[in-house]
Amino acid sequence: MSGSDGSWSTARRRNSSRTPATSAPRTTSPVASASRCGGDMPREVYHRDLAVLHERILALGSSTRRAVEESMLSLRAGDFEWSRRIDAEDERINQERLAIEERCIAVIATQQPVAGDLRRLASALFVTSELERIADHAVGIARLNLMMVKELSPRPLSYLPSMADRALAMFDDAIRAFDTDDVALARQVCLSDDDLDRLQDRVYADVIAAMRADAGVVERNTYLLWAAHNLERIGDRCTNIGERVVYTVTGESTDTKVSTF
Amino acid sequence: MSGSDGSWSTARRRNSSRTPATSAPRTTSPVASASRCGGDMPREVYHRDLAVLHERILALGSSTRRAVEESMLSLRAGDFEWSRRIDAEDERINQERLAIEERCIAVIATQQPVAGDLRRLASALFVTSELERIADHAVGIARLNLMMVKELSPRPLSYLPSMADRALAMFDDAIRAFDTDDVALARQVCLSDDDLDRLQDRVYADVIAAMRADAGVVERNTYLLWAAHNLERIGDRCTNIGERVVYTVTGESTDTKVSTF
């Protein structure tokens, strides 16, 4: 954790010992309570503010992860009702993203953070936006299911389930690296993205060959290509989070990944 | 321009009369000059700060627009060198996005903006991020060209050129609405997205039919589907910018668009 900002980390650790990182955000925050009681110094309130923000981002991460996992399960099961639910729940994720951003900006505006904390708050804004985008890719996968007809259950999906497993593992590592300032783990996330890209190549070869051989699967298989694309983008965004952790902790900057097509 | 914040708008207008909105950002900003000369009040410096930020976002918009336009032209011409150049130039757009974000956050942290300006700065952060994402979609289109073999020039592209024209018109309107707080124009952008979606449906039907009829075009035509998807996402992001303008000026909130698949 070299280079990490002590005050932010300390506040966060102390707080997270009371509350699981994946819990939903509190309706009454410790910040609000502290202000009402008047028993804390303003700096103490500020550190709790940062800790609550961090927890809210982790909770958003949990919702996002669930959306990714369930979107693939609903596609595999051909469960339209499930996919529709995932689509509908995305609005809550969008709203929470906006609320976190607003809170971040309010903290920046009112608390005049020191340089180290400012970099962390900028990073919090970045990670929040990437999480919301990952949830959008999950919605993309759920909507593909809604565009397909009923098939065998579980539906044959080439290497897509392997891609989903790999993407979720990257996601877990990226979130853990963000939570604990683990630079080594963050770098590992970036490296493992190549595996996901290779799996996508296999899906592509497999699915295109089937389309060439049988005109009847052309439309259906283009949907599988979209699903693979969504999973590949999720991997890219996990890499972006990993790179941001490296930058926040060490100051080293690397390229943000864009789609390979 | 009802509901707009006078001070920010005034500062911006005064500034933009001297400098075209689409020019590259200055290397020596008026903020820096004012500080050195010591001839201005801090509030005056702050307003110039906001105006310079606004100009930098418009300049980023110009770079992004060029990337979108040229990516489609390079795909149509089958010009690999051109596509590679667009891909390489994206790094400058990514860096400028990060620089603008950093500057926004620094202004928020040091100048303690009033509520109206804070909403504008949050909006500036949002628009900057959407512009960078639009440029990513342009890179996506340029990379598709690099994955295809040489063909007839101009390459037959179904309704993709019409989609590109429509997307660029939406982009211009979204940027103008952002620049001038034009709520009516911003709402118009959101409505016109349906036309783009309908054009995408036509590309889809056209391209899939050709794939069913001729196994030889299966792989090539999946690339056209990706290109259509990128253009559709550009339209979604223009809609997001339009919705953000409506929110910033009026306080009315609407959903942020995600992909339909």
Description:
Two copies of one chain form a homodimer. Chain A is 79% helix and 0% strand. With 261 residues, chain A is mostly helical. Chain A has a single domain (6-250), classed as Phosphate transport system protein phou homolog 2, domain 2 (Methane Monooxygenase Hydroxylase, Chain G, domain 1). In chain A, helix 1 crosses helix 3 and helix 3 (42-77) runs antiparallel to helix 4 (80-111). The interface between A and B is large, with 41 and 41 residues.
Short descriptors:
about 260 residues; elongated; mainly alpha; Methane Monooxygenase Hydroxylase, Chain G, domain 1; about 80% helix; 8 helices; disordered N terminus; homodimer
Oligomer: homodimer
Rg over alpha carbons of chain A: 20 Å
Tally of distinct domains of chain A: 1
Overall geometry of chain A comes to elongated
Number of strands of chain A: 0
> Which structural class fits the helix and strand makeup of chain A?
mainly alpha
**N-end to C-end Cα span of chain A:** 36 Å
CATH superfamily descriptor of chain A: Phosphate transport system protein phou homolog 2, domain 2
> Uncertain runs of chain A with pLDDT below 50, 5 residues or more?
1-7, 9-39
Number of helices of chain A: 8
Q: What's the overall average pLDDT of chain A, rounded?
A: 85
Query: Could you give the order of the helices and strands of chain A?
Result: HHHHHHHH
Brief overview:
Chain A is built from 8 helices and no strands. Helices cover 79% and strands 0% of the residues of chain A.
